């Protein structure tokens, strides 16, 4: 028997749940792109995006997903044959490195495995071994969405400064922006990429590259910069609204994004971060209790290294895929697939992920956890008692 009728909950790490306010804002006839509300909205959107990123730098917006802005960040700062150092704590770090390679950039990967953050001593070693400053950039993923490892980007800034190394620091905050605490300028980040479909609660289709003056100077000599990806005209938009997107603007996305940024401003960014912290803590509490009675466990053992936006779970057997299927078909909640958790890089049935980014509240998390407990029983994944009690304690303490 299926109990999945009712509002479906897509509890995956992007695209995330879209607020009704965002959907309502998008539901309109074609807006005027020449004058009036839509072009007038753009400076405010730019200002609010920078506020969410906590930067006084620039932002260029693209009609692109996360992969698009990965490429945009590289194209505006690097030349064919340049070397970059990539810090990988999961599939997304490796993915960004692969993108660099395909552009003709030589990516040297420090792979720190899939269960925890990087080792700063190894980063320092790699920088010390580059006295000629061959690395033009260090690529670091804040939250790796495959492993749910959260890294402290400011540690890379400290390592670069300690080594006196001029490489640009580039951060991927696609999963974490407006979910996990992150302040671009305070972290000493030169280039940061984000998408609209995770913490920013807008349907997939827009990506952002934030960059400071130092990164913009690298643009002068970057031979990978091409007409479409060039970030400069998009920032200045000196030729008018048309230039923000090097062509037609994503009209309806802008209305949706405007509504999402209003929601973030209304709640307050600090409160948004705290909400994500508390909801994540409830999820961890549940899985820690369940894990005491079986093979299932959180992928990241160290609490301080866990993202508050996404949680990767090791199911302990390929029944993880059965659990996902059961939840979608019987309970109306879809969890994320296990991604890149072995050398094959393919979907791993022994893993699943919960997205808890963006428009998520206590009842959604408790509903998902309650459904998961039912699913564990239904598909026969061994688990200890008290998972929901433990989660409820965390929520009750909020
Ligand atoms: C989602 C994500 C990406 C890729 O974004 P797409 O929109 O799927 O191209 C890259 N990096 C991180 C950390 C992500 O979470």
Bound molecules: pyridoxal-5'-phosphate
How large is the radius of gyration? 21 Å
Q: Work out the helix count.
A: 13
By DSSP, the count of extended strands is 14
Low-pLDDT stretches:
none
Bin the strand percentage: 15-25%
Give the termini separation.
36 Å
Give, in order, the helices and strands.
EHHEHEHEHEEEHEEEHHHHEEHEEHH
Backbone structural class? alpha/beta
Shape: globular
Q: How does the major sheet shape up?
A: 7 strands, mixed
Notable features of this structure?
7-stranded mixed beta sheet; globular; 5-stranded mixed beta sheet; binds pyridoxal-5'-phosphate; 398 residues; alpha/beta
Can you put this structure into words, describing what you see?
- With 398 residues, this protein is of the alpha/beta class.
- The chain has helices at 20-26, 37-53, 66-75, 91-102, 120-128, 153-163, 213-219, 232-236, 251-267, 269-291, 319-331, 362-379, 387-396; strands at residues 9-11, 58-62, 83-88, 106-111, 135-141, 143-144, 149-150, 168-172, 191-195, 207-211, 297-298, 310-314, 333-339, 347-355.
- The chain has a 7-stranded mixed sheet, sandwiched between helices.
- A hairpin with a 7-residue loop joins strand 13 (333-339) and strand 14 (347-355).
- Helix 2 crosses helix 9 (251-267) and helix 12 packs antiparallel against helix 13.
- The radius of gyration is 21 Å and the shape is globular.
- The mean pLDDT is 97.
- The structure holds pyridoxal-5'-phosphate (PLP).
- Pyridoxal-5'-phosphate (PLP) is lined by residues 14, 65-67, 92, 141, 143, 145, 172, 174-175, 195.
- Pyridoxal-5'-phosphate is lined by residues 14, 65-67, 92, 141, 143, 145, 172, 174-175, 195.
């Amino acid at each position: 028997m299926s109990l999945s009728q009712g509002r479906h909950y897509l509890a995956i790490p992007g695209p995330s749940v879209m607020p009704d306010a965002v959907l309502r804002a998008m539901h309109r006839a074609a807006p005027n792109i020449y004058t009036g509300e839509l072009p007038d909205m753009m400076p405010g959107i730019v200002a609010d995006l920078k506020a969410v990123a906590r930067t006084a730098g620039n932002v260029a917006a693209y009609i692109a997903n996360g992969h698009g802005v990965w490429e945009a960040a590289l194209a505006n700062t690097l030349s064919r044959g340049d070397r970059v150092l990539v810090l990988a704590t999961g599939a997304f770090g490796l993915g960004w490195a692969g993108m660099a390679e395909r552009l003709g950039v030589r990516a040297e990967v420090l792979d720190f495995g899939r269960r925890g953050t990087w080792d700063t001593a190894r980063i320092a070693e790699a920088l010390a071994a580059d006295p000629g400053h061959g690395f033009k950039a260090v690529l670091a993923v804040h939250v790796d969405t495959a492993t749910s490892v959260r890294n402290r980007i400011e540690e890379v800034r400290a390592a670069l400064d300690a080594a006196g190394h001029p490489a640009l620091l580039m951060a991927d905050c696609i999963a974490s922006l407006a979910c996990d605490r992150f302040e671009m300028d305070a972290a000493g980040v030169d280039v940061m990429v984000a998408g609209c479909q995770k913490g920013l609660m807008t349907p997939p289709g827009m990506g952002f590259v934030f960059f400071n003056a130092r990164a913009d100077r690298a643009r002068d000599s970057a031979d990978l910069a091409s007409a479409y990806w060039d970030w400069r005209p998009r920032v200045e938009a000196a030729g008018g609204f048309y230039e923000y997107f090097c062509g037609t603007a994503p009209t309806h996305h802008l209305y949706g994004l405007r509504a999402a940024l209003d929601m973030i401003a209304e709640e307050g960014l600090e409160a948004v971060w705290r909400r994500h912290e508390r909801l994540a803590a409830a999820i961890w509490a549940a899985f820690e209790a369940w894990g005491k009675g079986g093979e299932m466990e959180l992928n990241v053992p160290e609490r301080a290294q866990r993202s508050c936006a996404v949680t990767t779970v090791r199911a302990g057997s390929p029944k993880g895929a059965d659990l996902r299927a059961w939840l979608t078909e019987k309970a109306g909640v879809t969890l994320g697939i296990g991604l890149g958790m072995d050398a094959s890089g393919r979907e791993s049935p022994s893993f699943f992920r919960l997205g808890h980014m963006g428009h998520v509240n206590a009842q959604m998390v408790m509903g998902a956890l309650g459904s998961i407990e039912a699913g564990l029983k239904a598909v026969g994944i061994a688990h200890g008692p008290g998972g929901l009690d433990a989660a409820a304690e965390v929520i009750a303490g909020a």
